[in-house]
Amino acid sequence: xxxxxxxxxxxxxxxxxxxxxxxxxxxxxxxxxxxxxxxxxxxxxxxxxxxxxxxxxxxxxxxxxxxxxxxxxxxxxxxxxxxxxxxxxxxxxxxxxxxxxxxxxxxxxxxxxxxxxxxxxxxxxxxxxxxxxxxxxxxxxxxxxxxxxxxxxxxxxxxxxxxxxxxxxxxxxxxxxxxxxxxxxxxxxxxxxxxxxxxxx
Length: 201
Ligand SMILES: [Zn+2]
Known about the structure:
Helices cover 26% and strands 16% of the residues. The protein is an alpha/beta fold. The chain has one domain (3-198): Alpha-Beta Barrel (TIM Barrel).
C-alpha cells in the first residue's frame, strides 16, 4: 500500500520519525499497541534513519537522549557536514516484525539525518534511493521536514512519495492528538519513560 492510496481514505495517520537502531523496541511496541487498542483505524508510518550517532554511549544515565539519532547540539552548527560523522549503521532487526504486527507503513528518513537542501542533487539521490532500497519502501520523509526542488525531482524520477510538511502534518508536541483524520508526527525521544504513553489517549 502506498501513501497515495492512503490519501483516499480519511484515516488519521501517526508518523514516527527517527526510527533507528538506537530505539527501544519494547517502548515502541508498547506505544503502537496502545494506539491500536484505543484507535484501531489509525495508520502508522515509521520513518527510518539507517545511519546514526551512537547515542546510547553518550547518554548521561537518564535515558532521555539514547533514542535520538544525533546529538541535539549539532543543530547549532553552521556546517551540515557534522551530520556525516555517524557512528552506527543498520536497519533495526525488529523492524519487519514490528511493521507486520502493527500493520505499519515504512518510509525512509534519509540515509543520513541531514537537511537535504544542503546536499547537491546527486548526494540527495544517493541518500534517498539507497536508504529506500535498504528499508524496502517508496516513501521519503525529509529530515527536519526540509526539502527543495532537487528533492522533488529525485522523488519524481524514482517514483517515490515525498512527504511534505506543508501537506498538513501536525507535530504532537504542539497539537494534541485527536483521531480526526488529520496527520500527526512524533519523535519518541521527546517523551522519555512513561511520558510517551500519555500522548495518545
Ligand atoms: Zn528526524
